[in-house]
Amino acid sequence: MNIHELIDKQAGLVPNKPAIIFKHTTVTFAQLRHEVHRLAGAFQATGIRKSQKVAIYMPNCPQYIFAYFAVFSLGSVVVPLDFMLTEQELINFMRHSECSLLLAKDKKGINFNNIINSCPSLESVVFAGGLPSDCEPSARFMDWQPPNTKNMDFVPPEIFSSDEAAIFYTSGSTGKPKGVLLTLAHLDNPINAIKHFLGVDHDDSYLCAGIPFSHIGGLDYIMYMLYFASTLVLMERFQPFEALKNIQAYRVTVFCVVPAMFIAMLSLKESDSFDLTSLRHLAVFGAPSSPTILKRFHQLCPNARLSNGWGMTETAAPNTYSPDDVHKINSIGPFGLGMEARIVSQDGRTLKDGEKGELWVRGDAVMLGYYREDALTKQVMTPEGWLKTGDIAYRDEDGNYYLSGRIREMIKVAGEIVMAPEVESVFFRHPKVKDVAIIGVADKMRGEVPKAFVVLKENESLSVDELRQFLKGHLAHFKLPHHIEFRGSLPKNRTGKIDKEILKKEEASCSAS
Fold first, then answer.
1. pTM of the entire structure?
2. What is 405-436 written as a DSSP string?
3. Bridge-partner residues for 57, per DSSP?
4. How many domains does the chain contain in total?
5. Could you say which DSSP state residue 283 is in?
6. Res 394 pLDDT > 80
């Protein structure tokens, strides 16, 4: 994919069409081209060349999109970094990726002098929104100002689909950095997948409600906007009420969410007051199986198809969606588009339909590997090109795949295997439960037992005994949580998913004390 040529094409075809709507401000496709050209020219003038690494550290905003496209247009490699990262995490990732340039916004608690002094390859930091007070203007620290007119006509290098395009970091401050290395060819996969499975086109519009652009799902929205010449309604962070307002106000047709976002919107008392009839597709990555939730969705969005999607950063997600069949709503569908899958046992055997094992995938969308981490790459990729996803799944006789959970979500209770998502799905059947997370905790008798963290709906009350009695009617004895804790909320990561690692650390800390 040649980003520079695609931007020129869309700006020529629909110059006045809104490309981005952010806080009620519109950027047209002609303005998008103008900003990207000027920025690419400025980067080229500072010496940024093809294959050099450029990090971006900003919250979701139009400037992030301009930066993405400018770097792609130069044939350089984008290193998108989450705006929630700490100073030390930034240093770790930029040293590991050998970044030459950092595009950033000022943030409290981040000392950019420390960062540039700690990263030998880092030559300059360019700030959108003004320089921090402790950074003197110089070749090292520059303000994001429109470059001179002479820089607008930058000279794009020759671009090939095999060129490296992005490094997405998927690990935190501990352990070895895991930077997923993708090429420009990988960027075609999200477009081909959503076009093939959902049938979207240029008439669709998208809502990105807080999925960070440092995540592959955030980049997907940007690519959909550009490829289809569609309008992207952008939110800096997820707020369920504002998300519903935006769907109604801008007649959004496609919205991709994680279950926590989905549940939060449906749980709002005001949700009935919004007109959501424009919505054609709502794709959930990590399927909520509660019949109550599904019924509520169809009441609010009568014209929308609900799909479960699957994909990983390592597979340039998304890769597949559930079929248009209400009886297979829990499926993630079949694989295709140059991708194949198999279910594998612990000893490496390919399992039969209906048997649960680890999902392995192979094909065009699988990453090149983890950047500068050959040992980590070999742990998850076989010599034959199979990627071990870490998902427990099975396949039905029609070729549709079903997820049971992550390997790390397996809880071994006295030799019996319990999958946390299966237990969580039962909790959602209770009309008073809003959210839940199941983890395994140490137990002297059984080795490990399930513990549930439960959030009730507003103004609802429920005792542990009442909830246990309900669960007994739906779960085998060994699957019943031995501990139930009610909370006002559950910790979430930047993509809106429940962060079970935080819960596990809290439990480990309590056990140690």
1. 0.87
2. EEGGGEEEETTEEEEHHHHHHHHTTSTTEEEE
3. 81, 104
4. 3
5. E
6. yes
